[in-house]
Each structure stands twice: as structure tokens, then as C-alpha cells.
Amino acid sequence: MTDASIAGAAPEPKKSSLLVQDARTRKRNAAEARFRMYGLGAVCTGILALVLLLASILSNGLSSFQQTYITLEVALPADKLDKNGNRDRAEMAKVSTFGYQPLIAAAMEQKMTARGISVEGLSAKDAAGLVSKEAPAQLRNFVLANPDVLDTTRTFEFLASGRVDGYYKGRVSMETAQLDKNISPEQLQLADILLEEGTLETRFNWRFFTAPDASGQRPEAAGLGVAILGSFYMMLVVLCLALPIGVATSIYLEEFAPKNRITDLIEVNISNLAAVPSIVFGILGLAIFINFAGLPQSAPIVGGLVLTLMTLPTIIISTRASLKSVPPSIRDAALGVGASKMQSVFHHVLPLAAPGILTGTIIGLAQALGETAPLLLIGMVAFVREYPAAPPEGFFDPASALPVQIYNWTQRSDPAFVERASGAIIVLLAFLLVMNAIAILLRRKFERRW
Amino acid sequence: MNDMRFTERAVVEDKKIAAKGVQVYYGSNHAIKDVNVDILDKTVTAFIGPSGCGKSTFLRCINRMNDTIDIARVEGDILLDGEDIYDAKVDPVQLRAKVGMVFQKPNPFPKSIYDNVAYGPRIHGLARTKADLDEIVEKSLRRAALWDEAKDRLEQPGTGLSGGQQQRLCIARAVATSPEVLLMDEPCSALDPIATAQVEELIDELRERFSVVIVTHSMQQAARVSQRTAFFHLGELVEYGETGQIFTNPEDPRTESYITGRIG
Hints:
The complex is a heterodimer of chains A (450) and B (264). Chain A has helices at residues 4-9, 23-61, 78-81, 89-92, 97-115, 124-128, 135-145, 162-168, 174-179, 185-196, 207-210, 225-256, 261-274, 278-292, 300-324, 328-336, 341-369, 373-377, 402-410, 416-446; strands at residues 66-75, 153-159, 200-204. Chain A is mostly helical. Chain A starts with a helix and ends with a helix. Chain B has a domain at 5-106 and 182-259: Rossmann fold. Chain B contains ten helices and ten strands. Chain B has helices at residues 55-62, 92-98, 113-124, 130-143, 147-150, 163-176, 193-206, 219-225, 243-248, 253-259; strands at residues 15-26, 29-40, 44-48, 72-80, 83-84, 99-102, 181-185, 211-215, 228-233, 236-242. In chain B, the strands form two sheets. A six-stranded mixed sheet of chain B has the order 6-7-8-3-9-10, with helices on both faces. In chain B, strand 7, helix 7 (193-206) and strand 8 (211-215) form a beta-alpha-beta unit. In chain B, helix 3 crosses helix 4 (130-143), helix 3 (113-124) packs parallel to helix 6 (163-176) and helix 4 (130-143) crosses helix 6 (163-176). Chain B is globular. The two termini of chain B are 17 Å apart. The chains are: A mainly alpha (450), B alpha/beta (264). Chain A binds chain B through residues 258-259, 327, 329-340, 343, 347-348, 352, 448, 450, and chain B through 63, 65, 68, 70, 93-94, 96-97, 100-103, 105, 107-110, 119-120, 123-124, 157, 159-160, 170, 173-174, 176-177.
């Protein structure tokens, strides 16, 4: 520094005031301000997109949590429902739902005459059209389950038909009813009268969460019961397989495996596997699990296995990252007091990595829960009305899955299914939110802040 | 450098560790070149030398911590009580129970103080009952001069202690398994002068029971705590002898240059 030539090469210090910004500083500050604006703009775009998404889903779907019901007193004449009079279930079952339809029409007519309700140009059959096509089946199931109710009059709560339900949710109006062959303005007038005197009411729709899917003619009866159960079974399979396999793989690769070409190759392949399109896993599941191993189609076990394969790379990558982030000094400390490699991993490294492993697992599960494409290929799109049995047999019973149910409902023509599909999306999002919340809670609980 | 207060006690001339022709390679890098050294029992031996001279590497050979590094390769013999620790029949885990280690940075487990000290005895099955374990923990903490500060907070996390206390906790953890040799890799480099003085005092007390090998960057520390000093330079053991002699009358010019501050 004492060298004269160096001192001479330095530029002369310019006299300038600190209170005045020079051009260079202004330019730098402007660049920073611009960058902040870009960042803010990006964040705002993201938030706007999220708000639009949520607003459209909520505005379409929230109404699916409400349902219109009609309460009727139905007489159950034995001469119609049990012609031989011996209360034999097999014989009673010969009366199909068509045999029960007139009972509902009669009940409706009776109600109208009793209350003195009449709407011009409305026949008794039309009046019965307010009640869902699901109602005769509901009646039949009840009678077959309790044969001794015959010859009595019972109060039943039936679903209102999809159009009547839509009328109270703003989807159907008098004008659209004029053009609709499934509903007439007169029927809607009757519905208004019934609403006033309390026969018809709209309230929270538990059936949406518990009922199985229904056909395209009966959107009001369609529920998510089978889909939720199917998704739950698949998540069980994924959790029971992907977590132990993924964690064991990661621990072996990270802590025990020699670093050589083979482990490098495995590592690259795991990363590649994470990027494989999910539909490819579906094809693999179809070829291996169904065609080769002979597992049943549409079964949660196959879906679970396919989703396990899909989730494994996610779990392995996040587990390895959290194992890597455990400071090596902890391993040294454990080895230094004479712990074996395995003791050092299981006593010290794994507990410290647990929050990261749990978060990775739950994020992997959430990803699997929302996955649709591979399930389409293994037959989970099937129309399933039977609940799968309790595990373990239930893993082999046909079931649906939440995202596939959404996909299914968006394919159907009745506009009531738009509402159902949006409602199902809300349910799916709620499940994902709950899972992420659990991930955060577990992280908090196990994280050692000392 | 003249403060030799710890060296008054008589030096026992029992060989504990004998290294013969030790070579260490990190890949193609020849890190330790033909080191021959005899470490005495119940003695503090200091390894000094400039950074990267291989003193820590050699220390880690003594309890086979280099095994955890894939590319490291050790040749030559290191005998502990006449047994080759690199023999194929030796389980490094068993060796490390005999040769404890304290690291440069205090690295207590993120567990309670009690569990930190009790971990070693637990995995080696040294305590049959809870009372035995309590006794080992207390004895170890007393030996590490931490008992008075820690006895009321045994259930609190070890990571909540101050740096000097953490390092003494690590020493307590190391002595809890009753090792025969205690290796210390720059144990005071992360500590302030007061904590350093406490640890140094402790090292001198530990000499009664263990053979202590300490790597240090501080020549004053080496002079204060050790009876024997080994000077490493560029992977070679340049000089090894009585501490007093190394610091006052070194034979090798390189040792003299290092001690007087011309290299390093």
C-alpha cells in the first residue's frame, strides 16, 4: 500500500455531497424499485389467480352442501306390495320400484287434497314429479328391510328432484322451466306453496358426503360416499407401502450405500422417476397389477399400488434431503462415543430428520390424493354404487376415487352435476388443506428448536 | 509459553499407543507420510502444526473415524496396548468405546443433559440399573467439572448450555464410557479464554486416568497442558519429544521456525 505507483493509479476523490444522490446511485435505486414492482406484480397475479379459482369453485359448488327435501306421509298397502300376504322378502322383492311409484303419487295427491292445494293445469302425476326418481327406491329398500311396516302410513323424507332443488339454488327459473320437459312452471308453483306450508325444505346435505354415486337422471341423489371411501383406502395403501419403502431406501442410499456408479445410476433414476407423467404409471399398473398379477379392476388396492409407485420418488427425494440436512457433527458425536452406524442413524439422525420426512410424506400423499390420470386406466372411472367392504377385503372391492368422481360428474349432461362436481372439488381441496395442516402441525411438534 | 504449571507431575513412561509407518491417503492425496509415534499412558500428548498438516487426520486414525470417509485409506500399524486396531477382526465400534473423542465444535445431542451423558453407557450396557446410570452420569459430569452447574437442570436440553459448558458436556459424554484414551480435536477453538482455561484444567485432571491426545492450534495451550508434543508439517511428523524440550530447544529448524512464528 505504500507503493507510490498504486497510490497514483487511484482516481482523485471527487468532492460531492452525501445529501445529493449522484446519477449512478439514482440508477441503482431505480433498478431496485423496478425489481420490487415486478416481484409485487408477480405475487399479485398469483393471488388474483387463486382468488378467481376459489371464487368460481365456491360460487358453483357451495350450493351442493344444501339440499331440498320433501316430507310426505306414504301409505304402504300390503295388497300392492306383498300380494301373497306372507311377508316373504324374496317375494316382496319381486315388486320393482315401478310398483312403488304410484304410492308416492297417491301420497302427494292426498296431501294436496287434505291441505286444499290446487294448481291449475297440474295433474297428480305431475305433482309427484317434484319428488326425486330416487324416492321409489328409497321406499322399496325401507319396506324390504322392515316388512312389518306394511299396511301402515309412515312419514318419509324424500329428495326433491334436481330441477326443484335447482329452483331454490337459482339454477332453474320459471322462464327456463317453460322450455324444460323435465319440469313445468306449474310444478314450481306447487313447490313454492309446499315450501310455505313446510312440506318442502332446504337444509344441510349430509347425503352428499355419504351417499354413493347416482345415475345421470338423478343428480340430487349423487354423493361422494364411495369416492371418499375409495380414496381413503388408497391413501392407506400408499401410506403403508410408500412410507416404509421410501424411508428405508433413503436411509440406505444416504447413510450406508457405497458411493459408486451403481448408486449414482439409482439416484439419477429416482430423480427421473419423479418426472415421469402419471398416466405412464397407470399403464404400468394396468399391465402389471391387473393383466399380469390378476388383481381386480377398479379396486383400491391397485390404485394404491400405482399411487405408491408414483409417490415413492417424492418421499425418497424429500427424505434424503432432510437426512442430508442433519449436521454431520451429530453423526460424528454418536460414532465418537462408540455407537454403531445403525445406532447413530436411528437414535440421532432419524429423529432430527423426522419433521422433514413427515412433511415430504404428507405432500406426497396429497399429490396422490389428487391424482386422476393413472386411476382412469385401471378402471376406477367405473360407476360404483356399492360401498366397498371394511378392510382388508374392501381393498379388493370396486370403488371410486375423489378426483375421478369429479372427472366423472363433469362429463354428465344434467347441469346439476356442475354443482356436484364443484362441490366435490371443494371437498377434495378441504382434504388437501387438512393434510397440509397436519403436515405443519407435525412439523411443529417434532421440530427441535434447541 | 513459560506457564508450565501443569507439567509438574511425574510422567509415566508406559506406551499406550504405538504408530508404525502410518500413511493416510485421501484419494490420490498423500495426507500422512510415514508417521511413527509412541503415545504414553496417563500423559497429555499435544499435536501441533500449521493448518492442513495432518494432525487432525492422524488423530482420527487412532479411533478409526477416518473409516467414515469413503476415499480415505490408512496404511501401516497403529497398536493400542500391543493390538493392531486396523486388524480385520477389530470392530471400530468396540474400539471407539475404548478410545473416546471430543470434537472441535461442541456437538451435544439435541437431548437432555442427562441423556447426552447416559447415551454411551446405555448403548454399551455399562449400567444395569437406573441407579448405576445415575451414578455414571454424576461421576462423568463431576469429572468434566460440570456437575455443579448442571445438577439442577439435568432434564434440560444440552444444546441450551453455553459454548464452554457444551464442550465440557461433550467431554463428560466421552468419559462416561470409561475410555482408555481420550482424543481431543482442537477442543478449545470455539471457546472463550475463561472456558478454555476450565477445559485445560480439566484435561490435566483427566490425565490421572486416561491417556489424552490433543490437537491444538495454540502453542501456548500445548505448552500449558501437555507433557509431550509432536510437531507435524505437511503430513510428516517432524519432531516428537518432551514438551519443554520442543518449545525451548527444538532439534529441527522447521519446528523452531513454527514455534517462533516464521511458518504456519
